C-alpha cells in the first residue's frame, strides 16, 4: 500500500475534488490519498462524494477548523 499526499490548502470545491479524482486514477487499489483542508465545505464535499462512490474515507478534525482526510482506493 502506497500513501500519497494531495495539497488542497486554500482551495474550495470543486477544485480539491477534481484533484482527488485525477490522482485516484493513477493509484492502485489499497493505496491511500491523504489530504488536509481548512474548509469544512471541502471536507464534507469530498466525504459525501467518496461514500457515494463506495470509497473508504476517514475524516478527522485534527484542530479547530482543520480536517484530515484519508481516502482509500477500493476499486477501479
Automatic annotation (TrEMBL):
Annotated signal sequence range: none
Protein name in UniProt: Response regulator SirA
Ranges for domain UPF0033: 6-30
TM region positions: none
SUPFAM superfamilies: SirA-like
Listed CDD domains: SirA_YedF_YeeD
Lineage: Bacteria, Bacillati, Bacillota, Clostridia, Eubacteriales
Amino acid at each position: 500500500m502506497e500513501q500519497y499526499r494531495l495539497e488542497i490548502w486554500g482551495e474550495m470545491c470543486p477544485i480539491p475534488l477534481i484533484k482527488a479524482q485525477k490522482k485516484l486514477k493513477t493509484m492502485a487499489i489499497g493505496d491511500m490519498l491523504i489530504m488536509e483542508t481548512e474548509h469544512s465545505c471541502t471536507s464534507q464535499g469530498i466525504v459525501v462524494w467518496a461514500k457515494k462512490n463506495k470509497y473508504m474515507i476517514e475524516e478527522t478534525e485534527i484542530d479547530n477548523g482543520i480536517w484530515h482526510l484519508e481516502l482509500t482506493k477500493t476499486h477501479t
